[in-house]
Amino acid sequence: MAYKNQYAILTKGLTKQYGQALAVNGLDLSIEPGQFYGLLGPNGAGKSTTIHMLTTMTSASSGEAWIAGREVKRYPVQTRALVGLVFQDSALDRMMTVDENLQFAAALYNLNKQQAEQRIAELLSVFGLEKKRHQKLVALSGGQRRAVDIARGVLHKPQVLFLDEPTIGLDLPNRRSIWRFIEQLRKDEGMTVFLTTHYLEEAEACDHVDFIQKGQLQKGGAPKKLIKNLAAYMLEIDCADTEVVSQQMRPQFGEPLWEDQHLTYRIQDKETDFYQLQKTLGNAVNAMQWRKPNLNDVYLWTVCPPDYGVVT
Ligand SMILES: Nc1ncnc2c1ncn2[C@@H]1O[C@H](COP(=O)(O)OP(=O)(O)OP(=O)(O)O)[C@@H](O)[C@H]1O
Ligand SMILES: [Mg+2]
Predict the structure, then answer these.
(1) Phi, psi of 156 (to 5 degrees)
(2) Where is the ABC transporter domain (predicted)?
(3) Ligand 2 being an ion, which residues bring their Cβ within 5 A of it?
(4) Burial status of residue 68 (CB atoms within 10 A of its CB: 0-12, 13-18, 19 or more)
């Protein structure tokens, strides 16, 4: 069993069934210590369910999981000490102060008074929240509340931190601040981070991302590599006549992603002459632009490729 210790997270055939529905179907994951891992997928794909199984919030229907070499099912108490969890929905009491919320969590983690005091002070300093310590959460901004949620999740210095959509609903400056804090924690404490997010530009910082859809894992890779492998350019065309454009494009460029009058093509050939192409398509085109691909493109082409149908 020694090899299991090599991984921060290891799962074999991890499955969760709710009635007839398979929320997570035979998941095999192997995530190394210190990795920044992202699990990406549409609403209802099984991301939170996966996190809940790995953090003992819910039991697996079948399959196995290990956190830092300990089997989750056999050692739930040890698992809870090893993991930190920032929930998709806040776990804080808004009518309590920042300090009260964190002291309460510290007691749950069995930190003694001195340890709690030291750790809370340390984290409030990282998050720049020292002055808010004795304010009720209702008086804080969304970004500050989220920071307290993260502080709560890492109070006990977990080896593996699960972040379930940590920046959902936050504006851009707050999202950036939250990521600075998380980066700081990764640097200071070497935590393995397991992230789910719908903001794919945030997931570009991951070492590795996989995709999940209807409970089924689709293996991904390093974001930079996935982006490079997807295409040299993405070509977006606003069509006056989609039939004409798609017919003319098909022999050389295949099928596009199709959204009403807007078609997106993957262009593999770096030397493609877009000006010439624009001339050839002529009046069938209203507007045309080409750009470098990003992780959002990888996601769309993985989760709903051209033959997949309508995005739900
Ligand atoms: N307690 C439950 N009882 C029954 N079905 C559930 C339960 N929790 C989740 N599900 C179902 O399991 C599936 C996966 O849900 P899950 O919350 O894991 O998705 P998700 O990927 O986290 O989605 P989102 O991006 O919306 O957060 C969904 O079809 C959901 O309806
Ligand atoms: Mg979820």
Answers:
(1) -95, 20
(2) 9-239
(3) 47-48, 88
(4) buried
- What confidence tens digit (pLDDT) does each residue in 28-70 have? 999 999 999 999 999 999 999 999 999 999 999 999 999 999 9
DSSP-assigned letters across all residues of 25-69 = EEEEEEE-TT-EEEEE--TTSSHHHHHHHHTTSS--SEEEEEETT
Question: What was the pLDDT predicted at 165?
Answer: 94
Cα of 231 vs centre of ligand 2, distance in Å, is 30
Res 170: pLDDT: 87
- Tens-place pLDDT, residues 124-174: 998 899 999 999 999 999 999 999 999 999 999 999 999 999 998 888 888
Is CATH 3.30.70 what the domain over 232-292 is classified as, yes or no?
yes
Kindly report the protein residue whose alpha carbon is nearest to atom 18 of ligand 1. 46
Nearest CA to ligand 1 atom 11: 23
* Nearest residue (CA) to ligand 1, atom 24: 43
- Where in the chain do CATH 3.40.50.300 domains reside? 2-226
Which three-class secondary structure state does DSSP give residue 227?
helix
Q: How far apart are CA 250 and CA 245, in angstroms?
A: 8
- Which residue has 């009046």 as its token pair? 283
What architecture is domain 2-226?
A: 3-Layer(aba) Sandwich (3.40)
